[in-house]
Design goal:
The chain has helices at 21-32, 71-82, 100-106, 195-208, and strands spanning 5-11, 36-41, 57-61, 86-90, 108-112, 117-123, 137-141, 145-148, 155-162, 165-175, 178-183. By secondary structure, the protein is an alpha/beta fold. The relative contact order is 0.18. Residues 24-208 form the ThuA-like domain.
Length: 218
Amino acid sequence: MNKRINALLIGDNGVDVWHPLEPARQQLVQIIGESTNLTVTEDYDSLKELSRDEFDVVISYTDCWLRDLTTEQTAGLITFVAGGGGILVIHNGISLQRSSELAQMIGAKFITHPPYQILSYHGIEPTHPLLEGVPDFVMGEEPYVVEFDPFAPVKVFLEYEYQGRRYPAAWENGFGLGKIIYLQPGHDARSFEPEPFRQLIRNSVVYAAGCRPVTTAT
């Protein structure tokens, strides 16, 4: 891949967040830094004037479970994706569901999660480009349970196993001209250490940006 991807990583730091941005930022710099120009912000107003000329993809690691987005912030992100931008939502980044419009765009909303534990992950569509170079894997994680929007064209390509049942762990869907990808792992820095998940992040960033994922060894 010749073109470097321009990505905006947005999240939250502080004492009143469950998933601080900084540890995830450090890991993401290691994972995608060679192929991606990563701009990092805690300013949600950055979403208001998102430009396809400036960014290819937004990476949401937001922890805004108790804080609503403004109408302008919501509209800016929706316009960006509808116009061909991508969004990669990692774990708690689904907290953008505070906006009902963004919840519908992402395709699902978080309902609950059992305690952090060891989970096994299984690809359910091995030929999917997002799973290129990503074998089944095991890692510690919060088993997020979600409820899908009945009108979103969601395609689940990864599941995790919990108490003998399998649940959605990653999906993709389209919105206008853009692409949305959700990855359920990402609770803390430990989540970003397994190589299969690191490769899944690489694949997701380039896929959301409109490129074909490629396997890149670290």
